């Protein structure tokens, strides 16, 4: 009986020791896993804190109060259409399938920033008359954004160029065959617009065969005040 009792004590002792060792190893692994989870969470939080903020339309800095953010790009040769974004709202793009050869125009309410209209006018194979009528119909206080695609100048006449210059453009008088051009002005503007980019079509400097590189522009448009 004593020998049996001694064996039982030994078995119980071994069991308890084994249980203790296993529990210790398990706790260590649990601690390691928890440490890994906490470290991962800390790294994720740090990554989120260092990620640069995104501003409307993807512009490089935030606009001040009572200004509308915009970003736009001309077309790329005759392959990729122009893109116009105002207040994080893409108004015209190839993805939206509302751009075309010639001059692409987006109209925006100067007080609210709300989009009013988008159109494109073929200045290679089209007629300038509808474009002139459209320009004449724009109401005072309207923000006007324009971008070329393929060719925006062949059918432009002096009347159309004058109407665009009255919106604040300075480059429209020199816009030529297959030049790339983006412009943001307004109906009733009293000065020349600071928002305009123009690259001439030049076979010696063109990025694409027959077309210059894309022109891009971003900025903050002042809200129209009463």
TrEMBL record:
It comes from the Eukaryota. Keywords: Disulfide bond, Lectin, Secreted, Signal. PANTHER family: UNCHARACTERIZED FAM3. Residues 101-188 form the ILEI/PANDER domain. Belongs to the FAM3 family. GO terms for molecular function: carbohydrate binding. Transmembrane segments: none annotated. This is FAM3C protein. GO terms for cellular component: extracellular region. InterPro entries: FAM3, ILEI/PANDER_dom, ILEI_FAM3C. It is found in: Secreted. Signal peptide: none annotated.
């Amino acid at each position: 009986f004593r020998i049996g009792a001694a064996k039982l004590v030994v078995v119980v002792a071994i069991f308890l020791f084994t249980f203790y060792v296993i529990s210790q190893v398990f706790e260590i692994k649990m601690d390691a896993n928890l440490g890994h989870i906490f470290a991962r969470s800390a790294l994720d939080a740090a990554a989120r804190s260092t990620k640069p903020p995104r501003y409307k339309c993807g512009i490089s800095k935030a606009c001040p109060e009572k200004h509308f953010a915009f970003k736009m790009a001309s077309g790329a040769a005759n392959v990729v259409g122009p893109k116009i974004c105002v207040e994080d709202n893409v108004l015209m793009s190839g993805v939206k399938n509302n751009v075309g050869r010639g001059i692409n125009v987006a109209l925006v309410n100067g007080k609210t920033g709300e989009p009013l209209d988008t159109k494109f006018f073929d200045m290679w194979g089209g007629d300038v008359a509808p474009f002139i009528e459209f320009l004449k119909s724009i109401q005072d206080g309207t923000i006007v954004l324009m971008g070329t695609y393929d060719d925006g100048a062949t059918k432009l006449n002096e009347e159309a160029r004058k109407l665009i210059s009255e919106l604040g453009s300075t480059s429209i008088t020199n816009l030529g065959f297959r030049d790339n051009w983006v412009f943001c002005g307004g109906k009733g503007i009293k000065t020349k617009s600071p928002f305009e980019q123009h690259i001439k079509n030049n076979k010696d400097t063109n990025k694409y065969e027959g077309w210059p590189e894309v022109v891009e522009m971003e900025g903050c448009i002042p809200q129209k005040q009463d």
